[in-house]
């Protein structure tokens, strides 16, 4: 038997597994590295987060990824550049993992698996691309080859999780439903797990044991992506609007907000996914032109964009749960640190109670990286995760491709 396969067979039989979950999202702020100890599998999964770090991307890393990210700033991408980036990101992520392990004084041999999301560079759900050659087909592309991670770290690696979801009828995202369902379902509370990353999304969890086919997750529109881009344009050197201070100094422009919300994405049925391909500079520019708000100051622009992210979430919540939704909302992602966003959300959803996932024992910044560790755990030791027999575009599948170190 292949010795790595033998090692995997042994890992599968352990009562718990030590898995590193990796996520680098649409904000391009860095690589989230979560060293997890996962006991058991399926609904019995228990998580211990042993270590967590966000290894920041420097300007050069961001520059390289932006050459292709969401189609690149010019709309033209070099196929050679894209090809070169794939193994390069894999090596970059491997070196970041090895640095973290050194810092945490954990030997790579003491880690069972790496679960790597990779860097999304393009997300093309059917409703968004409408390319005449591929009508009705969903596609998504994450770079950072898993073989590079496996060979460089010596740890068996699972990667490229989204392709199976698409093969089984999903849009390749959001995958959060699977991890949230396994880790955060409650017997006595209906929950909304709201992630405010570059793109905002939520998972709805009914009370455990009740109508489990009602669980689903959906993107709701921009989270921080337009806010960050606006800060970069108007305040060079600042990565984002820290603690929403700039937005707090501005006033919401109703005409611009109206024009931004006029996009069909917001009225489309749930669940749905999106990305910066849609919610980028062109979308904002068009809305400013149609509402004659090109002269708006940057603070007013930021106040309006924070309101837009909150309205996207609120609209999806109302669409799913009616106008007076009363849910326990647990926030995660970088936007949970932004009071401008949080306040706008509370105003929009007055019936809901807000907290962060911290109170559920899951560090809000680590939640997405943990998700991939949980998915890898299921892929090797569990069953396809079944949430409502595949309804609500949550196919019952296991996800992730396996790379051997040798
Ligand atoms: N203190 C803060 N004040 C305001 N905004 C913040 C703060 N901390 C983080 N953020 C926002 O959070 C962003 C990073 O969020 P996060 O790491 O969740 O995104 P991501 O994982 O890349 O996104 P996605 O979930 O879409 O993949 C930053 O770019 C910034 O906009
Ligand atoms: C294609 C892609 O990378 N999508 C991300 C992105 O970031 C947030 C939102 O858009 C979400 O749909 C997804 O990530 C999380 C981890 C998910 O799949 O649940």
UniProtKB/TrEMBL annotation:
GO biological process, one term: amino sugar metabolic process
Pfam families in the cross-refs: AnmK (PF03702)
Family in the record: Belongs to the anhydro-N-acetylmuramic acid kinase family.
Protein name in UniProt: Anhydro-N-acetylmuramic acid kinase
Chemical reaction(s) catalysed: 1,6-anhydro-N-acetyl-beta-muramate + ATP + H2O = N-acetyl-D-muramate 6-phosphate + ADP + H(+)
Enzyme class: transferase
Functional pathway: Amino-sugar metabolism; 1,6-anhydro-N-acetylmuramate degradation; Cell wall biogenesis; peptidoglycan recycling
One of the record's GO molecular function terms: kinase activity
InterPro entries: Anhydro_N_Ac-Mur_kinase, ATPase_NBD
Residues binding ATP: 25-32
Key words of the record: ATP-binding, Carbohydrate metabolism, Kinase, Nucleotide-binding, Transferase
UniProt cross-references to SUPFAM superfamilies, sorted A to Z: Actin-like ATPase domain (SSF53067)
Entry function: Catalyzes the specific phosphorylation of 1,6-anhydro-N-acetylmuramic acid (anhMurNAc) with the simultaneous cleavage of the 1,6-anhydro ring, generating MurNAc-6-P. Is required for the utilization of anhMurNAc either imported from the medium or derived from its own cell wall murein, and thus plays a role in cell wall recycling.
EC number: 2.7.1.170
